[in-house]
Write a structure and sequence with these properties.
heterodimer; A: mainly beta; seven-stranded mixed sheet; B: mainly beta; five-stranded antiparallel sheet; 11 strands; 58% strand
Chain lengths: 114, 113
């Protein structure tokens, strides 16, 4: 009964390919996020959606395109993958109406671009 | 935007000792300060959080203190155990940011038996 689940867990692909990562939360939260964790373990926000609406779009190349078909799902599509995109991508969700609360993270997707 | 600095980057202690990790933040509007623990290959998980209207919070062996004036907050772990070994992240968030977390750089805590 996983709260935030993302697939796949591992993704190995060649440079130039296009790939997607899917995320779903069953917590009823109104806000979902994508975070990137680099090789030095630094966690940085990429995008945030609140009730399917894009709220935060950090300085991320436009090869990265998030899509939220409903408030329980937030997918990440990456075009023309580059070596530097290799990282662990975490989906997260939280309930922000009424004040910021705990963010629950998915298990992460380790993307390796070769 | 918000900037969070975390120290030390690595911390090694003997089992039973205390461990302290410190963070400073730059945005005076930040009002929510969570701490996450990330074990190797796992997801970050919340261990304790504090809001700006509170100066200290405790949960068993873990405590967090917040100094709003100085814009710093600290995590204290007492009676450390080997299973406390992990990467610890502090974070800051403001109420108008839809829960966006700005993380510190992380502290690798190693507890030696």
């Amino acid at each position: 009964d996983t709260a935030v689940s993302q697939t796949p867990k591992y993704l190995v692909t060649q440079m130039g390919n296009d790939k997607s990562i899917k995320c779903e939360q069953n917590l009823g939260h109104d806000t979902m996020y994508w975070y990137k964790q680099d090789s030095k373990k630094f966690l940085k926000i990429m995008f945030s959606y609140n009730n399917k609406e894009l709220i935060i779009n950090e300085t991320v190349p436009n090869r990265f395109s998030p899509k939220s078909p409903d408030k329980a799902h937030l997918n990440l599509h990456i075009n023309s993958l580059e070596l530097g995109d290799s990282a662990v991508y975490f989906c997260a969700s939280s309930q922000v109406r009424g004040g910021n609360t705990e963010a629950f993270f998915g298990q992460g997707t380790r993307l390796t671009v070769v | 935007g918000e900037n969070v600095e975390q120290h030390p980057s690595t911390l090694s202690v003997q089992e039973g000792d205390s461990a302290v990790i410190k963070c400073t933040y730059s945005d005076s509007a930040s009002n929510y300060f969570p701490w996450y623990k990330q074990e190797l290959g796992k997801r970050p998980q919340l261990i304790i959080d504090i809001r700006s209207n509170v100066g200290e919070k405790k949960d068993q062996r873990i405590a967090v203190t917040l100094n709003k004036t100085a814009k710093h907050f600290s995590l204290h772990i007492t009676e450390t155990q080997p299973e406390d070994s992990a990467v610890y992240f502090c974070a800051a968030s403001r109420g108008t940011s839809y829960g966006k977390l700005t993380f510190g750089q992380g502290t690798i805590l190693t507890v030696h038996p």
